[in-house]
Each structure stands twice: as structure tokens, then as C-alpha cells.
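To assess whether ligand presence alters the predicted conformation, the chain was also submitted together with KG4. Input:
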Amino acid sequence: MIVIGIETSCDETAIGIVKDGKEILANVVSTQIEEHKKYAGVVPEIASRLHLQKINFVYAEALKQAGISPDKIDLISVNNQPGLVGSLMVGASFAKTLSMDLNKPLLTVNHLIAHLYANFLKEEKPSFPYIGLVISGGHTLLLIARSHHDYEIVGTTLDDAVGESYDKIAKVLGLEYPGGPLIDKICREYQGDFIEFTPGLKNDKKNKYNFSYSGLKTAVFYYYKKNPNAELNKILKGFQIAAVNVLIEKTAALSDATGIKEIVIAGGVAANSYLRDLFLKKKDMKVHMPDITLCMDNGAMTACAAYYRSRSGLFDPLDFDVYSKPKGGPAAYLQEKKI
Ligand code: KG4
Ligand code: ZN
């Protein structure tokens, strides 16, 4: 079965083609990072316009890489939530047209669930139940997945997402967008000591599995304001340690409480080398992490998620909509259960 996955939720125009849920025939990503750099963040209108300009070329390149003609595609899939509405609409319209033109079924996919499926594109696949940690520019989510259709949200961020805090700190400290990969690199190359920061909700019993990154961002910012001559490396390393350690601690606490030892990490921040090293040291858990190239937004993960969902035999009607936030709040993930 050949599935095409279309992803335009933020600043990547991406199309992947995956065979039988495991073999990546093509995975083309046209990134807009250079265009958004000068604004130190993603400008929604620019993002939508660039998707519109690029998507036909990305599709043509994906078919070329896969070495197939369009009639070989069995299923069309597209991320329709959450994300920037104008951007999602470009991918959604493209998918609807393709479905009508090729007369093939269509499945919408939740972008965050799609991220988890980057791990199903590896030789060794996660088994259920697993604890999922989705960490990206827009989300910080701790969940329990019991099947391909059953997700229970256990924790989320109460304010900023972890990737967002990397990007915002980079902005106030005068570093380039996106801050995550750059701060990761700086910290990897720096062996010295660091400024200690406390992450939000660290020992908060009422929010055992929730996260908060806004206070950490403010603390880093005020420290920098008060100590303009402080070494940047020390501040960045302190921030990264605080930001990442709390992710690991809360994932481990959920693992202890539930007895679930299978852990699946996903999203852009899953590329972070400090986080990957720490998770790999956790010998009491079986930790799955995507290949670095599949951590960031891409279409192959969407196609893979749709492959597993398509086993239910249910598809989406062509009048589906797009949503900036998961439709119905976090509970919307649970709707997957009804399939
Ligand atoms: O999943 P993604 O590509 O897009 C969203 O769905 O948001 O994630 C992008 C986010 C950005 O905030 C970026 O700074 C962060 O992932 N990121 C990283 C690293 N690589 C990307 N954060 C920390 N360390 C990294 N190596
Ligand atoms: Zn993403």
C-alpha cells in the first residue's frame, strides 16, 4: 500500500511517500526557515504564501524521488490540526484535489500523533502501551498510547511549549531562529559550569505531569538583563539543563506510576543531543527516538500514521476542516478511540 503524506502545519512544506507503513520512498521537505529568520519567528501569512508557492514542486519532486506515477498512490493523508490555519488550508486543499483527481480515499491526521509515527518508520517499532512525549515548537505533551487509535493525554504545558522557550530565549539573547538547534550545539561544545535555573512545576503535586516554560524563560531573561557581562554559554547551559531535565523526570515519574516501560519521544526537540543522551542512560526504560532527520516536520511521518489508521477501513469525507488547536481541546485526541 502506497500512502502520500502532506504536511504544511507550520513553516515546512513537506510531502512523503511511504510503502506499507515502513519503507520511505520519498520525503521532501522545503523549509522556510531562512525567510522567517529575519523576523526571529514564523510569520503566519508569509508561511501560507510560501506553502502555496512551493507545494506543487514539492509534490513533483516527491513523485520523482519515489520513482512512481500518481496512479500508484493508494491513500492520501494530510495533517489538518493543530497548526497555523492558513498554512494547514494549503495542504488540506491540495489533498482534497488530489483525492478527487486520483479517485483515492483520504485520511486526516493529527500533527502531534503524526510525530509519534516517526518512530514506527524505524526497524524496531514501539509496542503498546507506550508513554509518548511529544516536544515541539508548539506543544509539550505527555500521553499514554494504548493502541493506534487510543491516546490518553496525561500532561501538557500550561503556557509556552519547550521548543518555543528555546526559540524565545534565542531571540532575547540575540541568537538566530530557530533557537533549539543552535542552543543545543553551543551547549554541546561548552564544557564549563552553568547558572542554575529552576523549571516550572518541578515539584508541583497538583501538576505532576504538566509543564510550564514561561517562568523559566522570564528567569533566564532577567538574569541576562541583570548580568549583561555574564558568559552566554553558562546561561544557555543552565537553561537547557532545567528545560530538559524536567521532561525526563516527569516521563520517568509516569513510567514508575503506570509500570509502562516503553517510551516514545517525538517532535523537533527530540533532536536535542542532551535529551537523547540522558534518555539513553535510562536503563530501566525502553526508549524509542526517531532518526534526527525525522524529528522535524515531514510528510513521511504523516503517511505512516495514516497507514496504521487506514486499517480501520474508515476514511474522511472531503468536506473536512482544519483547526489551529486540536478540535475540542486535548479531549479531541481521545476521539481517536471511537474508530
Ligand atoms: O516539530 P517541529 O519541527 O515543529 C513543530 O511542530 O513545532 O519542532 C520545531 C521546534 C523548534 O522550536 C526548534 O527550536 C526545536 O523544535 N528544535 C530543537 C532542536 N532542534 C529543533 N530544540 C532543542 N534542540 C534541538 N536540537
Ligand atoms: Zn511538528
